[in-house]
Amino acid sequence: MKPLLGTLYLLGILVPEGLGYDGSPAQPRREVVEETVSPWRSLDTYSYTSYHPMEEIYQWMIQISEKYAGVATMHFLGMTYETRPMYYLKISRPSNNPKKIIWMDCGIHAREWIAPAFCQWFVREILQNYEDNPRIGRFLRNLDFYVLPVLNIDGYIYTWTTDRLWRKSRSSHNNGTCFGTDLNRNFNVAWCKTGASENCHDLTFCGTGPVSEPETKAVSRFVESKKESIVCFLTMHSYGQLILTPYGYTKNKSSNHEELIQVGQKAANALKKKHGTNYRVGSSADILYTTSGSSRDWARDIGIPFSYTFELRDNGTYGFVLPASQIQATCEETMEAVLSVLDDVYEKYWDSDSAGKVTSTAVGLGLLVSFMSIL
């Protein structure tokens, strides 16, 4: 067994057979998890206002799936370059009807610690409140949430052990003379055309080809398999306080650009009401910089209607090293923004007017049938 895989087994994480997504719930090794040294023992003492190393996030996912069994399940997605397992959480209530999907990933850039912190916050808020909060409860009647708390696991671990400001993955290139690919330049959309580099030493190195990295392969394969059901793709980053729409690789607008801007601006307004934080809304090419190979643009181009990048706090005072003291406020306001987006997505597909029209039509047909039977 490779040392890294051995470490994962010591952490109590079972690596499923094979290296690809199989869709089955992951099975943690409970007897080993309970022996693992950790500053917390249960979800009751898990801090959502602290940053957590990857081994604690793995354990948190296991405990979430155990505490909320039947609603939250932990699934294997793929393996990283350094052979670590990637897992996502599926939050779903039983339904007899086909359901749409909201995808959320965090931590594609290793140093952006506030992003995984938000993914964990989001999962907690949904699971703690879906039974008592009508707004959240209605989402789960027709939507499933797929949440990938840390996409770039190898890079994230590297920021804890070696270089806090590391951005890329940890794949090896040029015979081990340089490391890492910018995973958000590696998706199969206008690959390496603009705002990306073919030099493996650069921060925006786009990889050796489209979807060349195991992490982007895992995400791409899974999202492609569900694209007919995914209605919203959210990828969480920092920093800059922005809500970015497609596109980054061109000034041309997506077919639903105005709708994306309107929904995004409403989300920014909801966010501001919480703590007064200002966010700008627009396409990456218009308000930030050009990029190619981003997951956001790729998601929109494969047909997912709502696709956004959130760049969380701050505006540069602390940058990527956002103090833990700002986690709560950042997550609270971001939650308001995401819920606003979900409101608009929900109303587009299941709004009350449409339901009313369907009901009225059904009643009308029923009366007509009754009348005809009398004749």
From TrEMBL:
Q: Which SUPFAM superfamilies match?
A: Zn-dependent exopeptidases
Where does the record locate the signal sequence feature? Answer: 1-20
Q: How does it sit in the membrane?
A: Lipid-anchor; GPI-anchor
Instruction: Check the record and name the InterPro entries matching this protein.
Output: CARBOXYPEPT_ZN_1, Carboxypeptidase_O, Peptidase_M14
Active site as annotated = 311
In the record, what terms sit under GO molecular function? metallocarboxypeptidase activity; zinc ion binding
**What domain of life does the UniProt record list for this protein's source?**
Eukaryota
Task: Return the SMART domains for the record.
Answer: Zn_pept (SM00631)
Q: Does the keyword Metal-binding apply?
A: yes
Coiled coil regions in record: none
Q: Indicate where this protein is primarily found.
A: membrane
Q: Which organism is it from?
A: Ursus maritimus
UniProt keyword annotation of Glycoprotein present: yes
User: Which GO CC annotations does the UniProt entry carry?
Assistant: apical plasma membrane; extracellular space; side of membrane
Query: Where found?
Result: Apical cell membrane
This chain's function reads:
Carboxypeptidase which preferentially cleaves C-terminal acidic residues from peptides and proteins. Can also cleave C-terminal hydrophobic amino acids, with a preference for small residues over large residues.
What UniProt keywords apply to this chain's record, in alphabetical order? Carboxypeptidase, Cell membrane, Glycoprotein, GPI-anchor, Hydrolase, Lipoprotein, Membrane, Metal-binding, Metalloprotease, Protease, Signal, Zinc
Q: Which GO terms describe its biological process?
A: proteolysis
Q: What is this protein called?
A: Carboxypeptidase O
UniProt similarity note: Belongs to the peptidase M14 family.
Q: What cofactor does this chain's UniProt record say it requires? A: Zn(2+)
Output the Gene3D superfamilies linked to this UniProt entry: Zn peptidases
Q: Which residues form the Peptidase M14 domain?
A: 50-345
Q: Which CDD domains match?
A: M14_CPO
